[in-house]
Design goal:
Length: about 525
């Protein structure tokens, strides 16, 4: 075996690989020409500088695995790797403790005004009276996101005697109880927290989640810490809240632009700024190096895949056949997660038709990834293990008999605190994912783009009113699908469902008008992807 370490790693990382006496390990300082070095290589380890694109992989016909010593894989073309049969691995969670410790450190610094105390002392001033702070003990600590890092933060915050509240729709109540966290809605989290920390991935739902509207719902004097992603915060809105004193302080390690230029936080005394260093500890860097070395070694020796970010081993023909159903399953999951939000207790999947005989692990994981909606940490490889980690029950069923009038059907049921919802879907023309039914109502609709789901009484005039309102708000309808519940002749009106695919965005005013239609009982906005992965 030949492993190329294309970037500098710790001695401990190298030592893991050198336990294999017959392996050739080429370190970064020995690599003069990377494509040439990869010509007969089995494994490649990178950090963030090397661009492992399709052209580089083309120079490595024997390459079986690319290991990223870190989390982000923006510098690796995972799609190209999949097509070439190369497993791409990263090391999520290896820096969780480092991030958690900085989060707590920033909280203490905010509460006790440590940066100001330090700067005034260096200036020869003794401003003891103006530096009175507050204790963490007894404060409500709101944690948005209870993945590995969020839970590590919670465990440490308990030692300070804080009251923990958290929001994460994909963590079970059992996991929350084990960590003394009270699960609340995101609205209650924002409303009740004295300190708020962010530990979620970047998704359409979390982008800009801290904005003028949500800040206005928070307590006067709240303090906010962000060591996750800069794009979670509308920076101008937070800066205004800091200037007005509504937000007492903020500590930010990440920014929408890095390094930040002309940041609205520059010059604000109640803001602590650090240059994206949460995971930058000697221990964390060594941990990610050791972890990726072990993963690469286990895969090349035993075929064990850990923390892969692309697809497991499939023949080209199998992948071509199953790929459209992976897309279908992921979009069904994304659809239902937005249709019925809340903490997920269980996920049920059914495969019908020829799919029942196929390798459905990737279809299952695609559905889970869609439900969990955490693209930075949940993917088609690790999705099932994430459900186990988060205490979410998973059940699968396979039957060769078809359902919904189609040859191959995927059935997905989502159980949350709010209830349960079931959808059936299929693939048309080999590439087009379609919804076949929702909660027992047959309806054929495309699973792509922006969708409005509208439940209403099955009475005259509703469809026309919906079209009129969307037209008044300059919303173009791309597709309008209708379905009706079964009813007997004695009923004067049953229930109906519309799934409306639209072009562009829908304003809050348009949604309010739709919800104001007398016969309409529910309106939901769902955003899906447009292309296959």
């Amino acid at each position: 075996m030949k492993i190329v370490l294309a970037e500098k790693v710790s001695p401990a990382t190298l030592a893991v690989l050198k336990t294999e006496p017959d392996w050739e390990i080429l370190t970064h300082d020995q690599v003069k020409n990377l494509p040439e070095a990869l010509a007969d290589a089995d494994g490649l380890v990178v950090r963030s500088a090397v661009q492992a694109d399709d052209a580089l992989m083309a120079s490595a016909p024997k390459l079986r695995v690319i290991g990223r010593a870190g989390v982000g894989v923006d510098n690796i073309d995972a799609g190209a790797a999949t097509r070439r049969g190369i497993v791409v691995m990263n090391t999520p969670g290896a820096n969780a403790i480092a991030v958690a410790e900085l989060t707590l450190g920033l909280m203490i610094a905010l509460g006790r005004q440590i940066p100001k105390a330090n700067s005034t002392m260096h200036a020869g001033k003794w401003e003891k009276k103006s530096l009175q702070g507050g204790e963490l003990r007894g404060k409500k600590f709101g944690i948005l996101g209870l993945g590995r890092i969020g839970l590590e933060v919670a465990r440490r915050a308990r030692g300070f005697g804080m009251e923990l509240i958290g929001h994460d729709p994909f963590v079970s109540a059992a996991i929350a109880r084990e960590n003394a966290i009270k699960l609340v809605s995101v609205e209650e989290l924002f409303r009740e927290a004295d300190y708020l920390t962010l530990h979620v991935g970047l998704t359409p739902q979390t982008t800009g989640i801290i904005n003028a509207a949500t800040l206005a719902t928070m307590k006067k004097g709240v303090r906010i810490v962000n060591c996750a992603r800069g794009e979670l915060i509308v920076e101008a809105d937070l800066a205004e809240a800091l200037k007005s004193g509504h937000v007492a302080g903020a500590a930010l390690d990440v920014f929408s632009e890095e390094p930040p230029k002309n940041s609205p936080f520059f010059g604000l005394e109640n803001v602590i700024l650090t240059p994206h260093i949460a995971g930058s500890t000697a221990e964390a860097q060594e941990a990610v190096g050791i972890q990726i070395a072990m993963q690469v070694r286990e895969y090349l020796k035993l075929g064990v895949v850990q923390n892969a970010v692309n697809l497991p081993s499939l023949t080209h023909e199998e992948y071509q056949e199953l790929s459209p159903y992976m897309t279908l399953a992921e979009r069904l999951g994304t659809f239902l997660a937005q249709f019925l939000p809340g903490n997920v207790d269980s996920i049920q999947l059914g495969y019908y038709g020829r799919l029942a005989e196929a390798k459905t692990d990737l279809i299952r994981n695609s559905a889970i990834a869609g439900v969990l909606g955490d693209p930075e940490h949940v993917n088609r490889i690790n999705a099932a293990s994430v459900t186990e980690e988060r205490g979410i029950r998973l059940h699968e069923e396979k039957k060769e008999s078809a359902q919904g009038g189609a040859g191959n059907v995927v059935r997905l049921t989502l159980h949350t605190r709010a209830g349960e919802v079931t959808a059936l879907g299929t693939v048309l023309h080999g590439k087009s994912p379609r919804l076949l039914s929702l909660d027992g109502i047959d309806i054929e609709a495309p699973l792509q783009g922006t969708l409005l789901t509208i439940r209403n009484q099955d009475v005259p005039g509703v469809i026309g009113r919906v079209g009129t309102i969307l037209g008044e708000h300059r919303v173009n309808i791309a597709n309008f699908a209708l379905g009706r519940s079964d009813r007997n002749h004695a009923e004067t009106s049953g229930s109906a469902l519309a799934v409306v695919q639209i072009d562009g965005a829908v304003t809050d005013a348009a949604l309010k008008s739709l919800r104001g239609i007398e016969a309409v009982s529910d309106v939901r906005l769902v955003t899906l992807g447009d292309t296959q992965k």
